[in-house]
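Exercise 7. Given the encoded structure of a 404-residue chain, write a plausible sequence.
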C-alpha cells in the first residue's frame, strides 16, 4: 500500500523536536530586529490551499499543462507591481521568484543576453549574493567604491566607464543597500552614460526592501522603469512579509522575449530561472495586496519610517552616533556588544550593526533594544575607528550626502 505523510506516524521524540522548534521560534521572533522581515501578517485564510500540490511552473502569462496553478493571481500581483514601478504596460513582464536574489539574477541574465560583452558595475555595498551571481554567469564585472553613506561613488563609476568605453555598461543599482539602506541615484548614473555618449547600457535596480516603501512616499528618488530601470527585483517577504521567502523579477518585456524558449512537456514558455515555482507565494502576495490595499501599504511604509526616526532620536539622546539614510528604515549604529548579539537577532558587518524598522515594530520594542545596547556598551569598550562618520583609515574621505 502506498503511504502518506501523517502525524500519527511521528515518534514522541520527533514530536518533541517540533515542539521545541516552535517554542524557540516563538521566543526569538520578537527579538529579530536586524533583518528586513515584516512580521505583521496573517495568511490563515490561505492555509486550505496547502491541501493541493500546486505549482506555478513556467511563464505566468502563457498558461501551462499543469493546471493546479495560481497563474491568474500571480498576473494580478504583477499588474499591481507594474503600477508601483511605473512600467509601460505594453513593455512589461515579470514573475514571482524565490526571493530578491533570483530577481537580481534574472536582471543580470537579461542584461548579459542583451550585451554579452557588457561589464557589470556594482558598488562594494551591494548584497553579497551579487558577486556570486556574476561568478555563476561568467560576466565581466567591476566593483566600485561606495560613499560613506553606502551609496555608489559616481566618480569611480565615471572613471571605470571611461576606461572601458568599448564595453556596454550594465549598472547594478542598489535601491536600498542591505546594511545602510542607501539608494544609488539613477539620474546620476544616466548622467555618466550621457557624458560618454554611450548608446547601449542597461540598469538593473535591486529594490529588495525599499521597492515596497518608495512607491508610497511623496518625493522618492529615481528608481522606477520611468526613471530608466530596465529590470527591477523586489523581495516579497521583506516589507510585505510572510512565512515563505519570495520576490518579484520585473523587466521590460522586449528583453524577456529574447530569452524565451517553448517547452512541450509542461506546455509552457520557459522564461523563468527555476522550473517549478511556488504557487502559494503569489497567492500570499495577492492576499496581502488585496487586504492591505494601497492605503495599508502606505501606512506601513510611513509607520516604519516613523519608527526609524524614533530609533535614531533615542540612540542620539543616549550619545550613540546612530544614523539613517533619507527615506530608509535602516538605522545604523556601531557594532553591538556580544551580549546584545546573543539576546537580539542583529546583522553585523564591518564594524556596524543595524536595526530595520518595520510595520510590526513599536516604540516599546525599540526602547527595549536600545536600553540593552547602551547598558552593554558601557561595559565593553568600543573601537571608535569602526563607528560610521568617524575617521576610518580604510575608506579615505567620502561624502556624507543623504545622511540624517
Ligand atoms: C539589498 C538586498 N538585495 C538582495 C537581497 C537578497 O534578497 P533575498 O534574501 O530575498 O534573496 C537582500 C537581502 O537582504 C538585500 O538586502
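Solution.
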Amino acid at each position: 500500500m502506498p503511504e502518506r505523510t501523517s502525524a500519527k506516524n511521528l515518534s514522541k521524540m520527533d514530536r518533541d523536536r517540533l515542539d521545541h522548534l516552535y517554542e524557540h521560534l516563538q521566543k526569538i521572533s520578537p527579538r529579530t530586529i536586524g533583518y528586513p522581515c515584516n512580521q505583521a501578517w496573517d495568511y490563515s485564510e490561505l492555509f486550505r490551499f496547502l491541501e493541493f500540490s500546486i505549482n506555478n511552473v513556467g511563464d505566468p502569462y502563457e498558461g501551462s499543462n499543469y493546471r493546479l496553478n495560481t497563474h491568474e493571481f500571480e498576473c494580478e500581483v504583477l499588474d499591481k507591481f507594474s503600477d508601483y514601478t511605473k512600467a509601460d504596460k505594453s513593455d512589461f513582464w515579470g514573475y514571482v521568484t524565490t526571493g530578491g536574489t533570483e530577481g537580481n539574477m534574472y536582471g543580470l541574465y537579461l542584461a548579459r543576453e542583451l550585451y554579452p560583452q557588457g561589464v557589470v558595475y556594482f558598488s562594494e555595498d551591494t548584497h553579497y549574493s551579487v558577486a556570486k551571481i556574476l561568478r555563476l554567469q561568467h560576466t565581466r564585472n567591476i566593483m566600485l567604491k561606495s560613499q560613506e553613506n553606502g551609496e555608489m561613488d559616481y566618480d569611480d563609476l565615471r572613471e571605470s566607464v571611461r576606461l572601458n568605453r568599448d564595453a556596454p555598461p550594465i549598472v547594478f543599482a542598489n535601491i536600498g543597500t542591505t546594511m545602510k539602506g542607501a539608494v544609488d541615484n539613477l539620474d546620476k548614473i544616466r548622467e555618466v552614460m550621457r557624458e560618454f555618449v554611450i548608446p547601449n547600457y542597461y540598469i538593473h535596480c535591486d529594490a529588495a526592501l525599499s521597492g515596497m516603501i518608495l512607491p508610497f512616499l511623496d518625493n522618492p528618488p529615481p528608481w522606477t522603469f520611468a526613471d530608466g530601470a530596465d529590470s527591477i527585483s523586489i523581495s516579497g517577504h521583506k516589507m510585505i512579509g510572510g512565512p515563505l521567502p519570495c520576490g518579484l523579477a520585473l523587466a521590460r518585456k522586449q528583453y524577456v522575449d529574447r530569452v524565451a524558449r517553448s517547452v512541450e512537456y509542461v506546455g509552457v514558455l520557459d522564461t523563468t530561472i527555476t522550473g517549478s515555482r511556488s504557487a502559494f507565494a503569489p497567492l500570499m502576495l495577492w492576499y496581502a495586496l488585496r487586504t492591505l490595499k494601497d492605503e495599508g501599504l502606505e501606512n506601513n511604509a510611513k509607520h516604519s519610517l516613523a519608527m526609524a526616526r524614533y530609533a535614531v532620536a533615542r540612540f542620539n539622546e543616549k550619545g550613540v552616533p546612530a544614523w539613517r539614510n533619507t527615506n530608509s528604515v535602516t538605522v545604523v549604529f556601531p557594532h553591538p556588544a556580544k551580549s546584545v548579539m546573543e539576546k537580539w537577532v542583529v546583522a553585523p558587518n564591518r564594524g556596524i550593526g543595524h536595526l530595520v524598522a518595520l510595520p510590526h515594530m513599536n516604540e516599546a520594542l525599540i526602547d527595549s533594544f536600545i536600553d540593552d545596547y547602551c547598558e552593554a556598551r558601557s561595559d565593553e569598550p568600543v573601537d571608535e575607528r569602526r563607528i560610521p562618520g568617524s575617521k576610518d583609515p580604510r575608506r579615505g574621505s567620502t561624502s556624507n550626502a543623504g545622511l540624517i
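Remark. Residues 36, 99-101, 127, 129, 174, 176-178, 206, 208, 235, 245, 247 surround pyridoxal-5'-phosphate (CB under 6 Å). Students should compare their own answers with the one above.
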